[in-house]
Specification:
Length: about 120
């Protein structure tokens, strides 16, 4: 069974930076990986995603501030978050799409890491 191991969350002041990391365990080939955020009472929303050929997608609210990157050799995805604001406070979940022989990819979620931005 594949798990996603997340790290890098924490408390930071507004204007600061954090870097989130997410690795597959055991190391597993993925088609795409991404980060989602969720605040209490709201649905989980895409923050950024990246495919194996490094095609990226970002939520409008983070464009120009967050950068997603992928280390294919380590099957690890990173989310560099700069110019953080209190509105970025959320639990961030890592997501991976793993190819299967059944045609439909397996979707795996991490347990989430809390990011708190103080004003």
């Amino acid at each position: 069974q594949v798990h996603l191991v997340e790290s890098g969350g924490g408390l930071v002041q507004a204007g600061g930076s954090l870097r989130l990391s997410c690795a597959t365990s055991p190391s597993t080939f993925t088609n795409a990986m991404g980060w989602y955020q969720q605040v209490p009472g709201k649905q989980r929303e895409l923050v950024a995603s990246i495919t194996r050929d490094r095609s990226t997608r970002y939520a409008d609210s983070v464009k120009g501030r967050f950068t997603i990157s992928l280390d294919n050799a380590k099957d690890t995805v990173y989310l560099q978050m700069n110019s953080l604001t209190p509105e970025d406070t959320a639990v961030y979940y890592c997501n991976a799409l793993i190819p299967t022989t059944m045609g439909r990819p397996l979707e795996v979620w991490g347990q989430g890491t809390l990011v708190t931005v103080s004003s």
